[in-house]
Amino acid sequence: MFDLEQCLQDQLRARMTTRQTLIFPEGDDVRVIEAASRLVQFSNVVLVAARERVSALIDGGEAKLGCSRRRFFAQVRCVRPSESPLSDELAQVLHGLSLGSKWEVSPERAREMVTDPVYFAIMAVRLGYADAVLGGLRLSSRDFFVPCLRLLERSGTVYEMALFALPDEHPSGIYQHNLVMFADVALNPAPTPEALADIAVGASRTLRDLIPTELLPEVNAALLSYSTRGSGEGPSVERVRAAEPLIADK
Predict the structure, then answer these.
(1) Is the entire prediction scored with pTM above 0.90?
(2) pLDDT of the residue at 172
(3) What's the first-to-final CA gap in the chain, in angstroms?
(4) SS3 for the chain, per residue?
């Protein structure tokens, strides 16, 4: 089976010449703690959680660290939003961003919102205190993506991707190294042809960034539809057909 984890680690070592700051709103999740212990060699990690809670999970054996405990707490920062000196600034900016929108909030409500780990982490990225926010383990897509889409600056079509390696014994014979990436399973229920083209090209470029050419010489993409060999009709089929010629221009 393709060692996807090792491949990603090699890519991180090769590309991360400067240490980025990653912030995790679900900082007291065992899986996040374990991931953070393996990311300290590549980046600065911020866990939005009480240090005491993280320490208890480690000392109780629930979280298995990929580095020493001493190194973990020397390099991973734990933050409580309610006690952070950044909270007032984050709340002020959040209130300003909400003005005139359907979700406009008062200054008082903004201060309450930034005590939520998700909003605190997202606003920290918005203001440049962190480079990326990562989450969605315990949270639903709506809990995580709605504030991201509202508060983070973006350009082009927003979409999500899932990359996984099929077992060697999988008989498909279609995918190189049995690597598969699916893009956009929730955020765009009825994408336009232009959005479909953006997603197809963007996902292909991301896969190329993740898997080097020497391991994956070609990236092949397909637009999926319920129409088999042109047998079906309907709005979604027409959008897929209209997207195909747009891909060549990107």
Answers:
(1) no
(2) 62
(3) 33
(4) CCCHHHHHHHHHHHHCCCCCEEEECCCCCHHHHHHHHHHCCCCEEEEECCHHHHHHHHHCCCCCCCCCHHHHHHHEEEECHHHCCCHHHHHHHHHHHHCCCCCCCCHHHHHHHCCCHHHHHHHHHHCCCCCEECCCCCCCHHHHHHHHHHHCCCCCCCCCEEEEECCCCCCCCCCHHHEEEEECCCCCCCCCHHHHHHHHHHHHHHHHHHCCCCCCCCCCCCCCCCCCCCCCCCHHHHHHHHHHHHHCCC
Rounded Cα distance, 235 and 113, in Å: 40
* Predicted pLDDT at 101: 95
Query: In this structure, are residues 162 and 180 in contact, taking their beta carbons and an 8 Å threshold?
Result: no
User: Would the pLDDT of 6 be above 90?
Assistant: no
CA atoms within 13 A on the CB side of 209: 9
pLDDT tens per residue, range 102-153: 999 999 999 999 999 999 999 999 999 999 999 988 988 788 888 998 999 8
The CA radius of gyration of the chain, in Å to the nearest whole number, is: 21
Q: Could you read off the pLDDT of 159-210 as tens digits, one per residue?
A: 888 888 888 777 766 777 888 888 876 688 888 999 999 999 999 998 888 8
Pairing of the two strands 161-165 and 179-183? antiparallel
Contact 25, 133 (CB under 8 A): yes
